[in-house]
Amino acid sequence: MSGPVRFALIGAGGIAQSYVQAFEKHPNSMVAAVVEPRSDAAQALSERLGCRAFANHHELLKADVSLDGAIVCTPPNTHEEIVCDLVAAKIHVLCEKPFTISSGVASKMLDMAAANHVLLTMSSKFRYVEDVIRLKSLIASGVLGQIVLLENAFTARVDMAARWNSVPEVSGGGVLIDNGTHSIDIIRYLLGPLAAVRAFQFPNIQKIAVEDTVQLFVKAQSGVPATIDLSWSINKELDHYLKVHGTQGMAVVGWKESRYRQHSARDWVKFGNGYDKVQAFRDVIGNFAKATLGLENLLIKSEDALASVQGIEAAYRSLREPHWMPIE
To answer: Any residues with CB less than 8 A from the CB of 77 and at least 6 apart, and which?
Structure first.
């Protein structure tokens, strides 16, 4: 790279702060502009990063700012307008998950990006966690034997009453679209394309307009099943978020340590140090930055972004019509 890759950061909320932490530890990329309608938040972030601030993306596109790409960190219901305007201006876009609320909108965005010859992809941090990548290699090596079941759980007690994630018109749903997007993407990454999903909603604990606890059963096209537990109101207090069962062994990806054990062995083998959020976001930025320069392929491609939306759509259909729903 001849110089740092220059990004606009669209949004200054919680997820944007994670990107800021990662940018501060990234030597080859920088934030050249911040877009945020809350003037105090925009000013604070622009001062921290030493860049210009804009109230909306329209102002940004009219300004004389040299950009290599943009990272969209706004609520899902805003993605269509912002992303389409950016790609029309020939700007590469990394869009935070959930990519969109509907697959029709996702297809429109991706088609528009292709027509304008720019990159558009979804950001899903767990794909960039080093232990998840190592788990994929572990599965492929055959050390666990034939995979027979994958378990995933993202559960915690979080008060969602005052957050946009619990406003259906903004978020597109509740914990299913919010955390479930990560789950669907991880399972596709590890097991390949998905065939069908069956979703169950539990009675809400929180007084919010969207679901706060859901369980999913997923079938990969390879025939391997997976279970997903999602909740904002129940904490299963697990030390891991992924567990893989094989005919010859099992593996867990944990928050603080990842390990595997073959059935013929007594001891566990450590293969990772757990979840490092800054590392994950730093590698998200790095992969996208290099892809904009043609130096690296995107880890999450356009078909992955679309498939994540299709998987969540199928799960919501299963909640409304209680039976297995096909995916993709």
So the answer is: 101, 169, 170, 171, 172
Cβ-contact 92, 214 below 8 angstroms: no
State the Cα–Cα distance between residues 83 and 89, nearest whole angstrom: 10
In this prediction, what percent of the chain has a pLDDT beyond 70?
99
> What's the mean pLDDT when you consider all of the chain?
96
Q: Which domains does the chain have, with CATH numbers?
A: 5-123 (3.40.50.720), 127-278+309-326 (3.30.360.10)
The amino acid at 320:
R
User: How many Å apart are CA 309 and CA 38, to the nearest integer?
Assistant: 29
Spatial CB neighbours of 9, under 8 Å, sequence gap ≥ 6: 16, 19, 20, 31, 33, 34, 35, 45, 49, 70, 71, 73
243-275-68 Cα angle (round to 5)? 120
State yes or no: pLDDT of 2 exceeds 70.
Answer: no
